[in-house]
Write a structure and sequence with these properties.
Elements lengths: L1 H7 L3 H8 L2 H29 L3 H18 L1 H8 L7 H29 L6 H21 L6 H14 L4
Helix pairs in contact: 1-2, 2-3, 3-4, 3-5, 3-6, 4-7, 4-8, 5-7, 6-7
């Protein structure tokens, strides 16, 4: 709270008046990070909606999302690599944000299923796989940026999906 107040050029009491507590400040920071993440996801899903076919939708959306992770790594770390011991409110904000993203991904998948006639696809399960893999790949970018690039990750994922046997 002292550092926030000093950076803002105000007394520490002002920080407490605005945020209530350190946990309140952390929650406010996390909610802002969720807003930024939500905007990223919206852009990625818009790109996925415009792509031709499931594989292109996945790889295109993934590249857009991962490019944003690279541009704003500090925000991504807050959401994808939360600090141990963070208050419950921070973990709740992360969980709530992840659930919103899951629903948005599922909506895109359902629209693709309708458009492409893939009636036997479990949209909810696929949405979990997409979100989980996007988060995993984003963590790789954050933890090993010299080794993993958005293009490398998206290309490998698309190649994997393309060459999976179809039954």
């Amino acid at each position: 709270m002292e550092r926030v107040a000093a950076a803002a050029g105000v007394a520490k009491s002002v920080s407490y008046a605005i945020f209530g507590s350190q946990a309140g400040l952390q929650r406010a920071v996390m909610l802002r990070a969720q807003e930024v993440t939500q905007a990223r996801v919206a852009k990625a899903l818009a790109a996925a909606r415009e792509a031709d076919g499931f594989v292109a939708a996945f790889s295109t959306g993934l590249v857009v999302y991962l490019e944003h992770v690279v541009r704003e790594p500090d925000i991504s770390r807050l959401v994808l690599l939360p600090i141990e011991g963070a208050p419950a409110s921070v973990h709740e904000a992360i969980r709530d944000g992840r659930e919103r993203v899951l629903q948005q991904i599922e909506d895109v998948i359902e629209a693709r299923i309708d458009r492409e006639g893939a009636a036997n696809v479990d949209a909810h399960l696929i949405a979990h796989l997409v979100r989980g893999n996007a988060e995993l790949l984003a963590r790789l970018l954050l933890e090993q940026p010299e080794k993993f690039t958005p293009e490398r990750l998206a290309n490998a994922t698309a190649a994997f999906a393309r060459y999976m046997p179809h039954s």
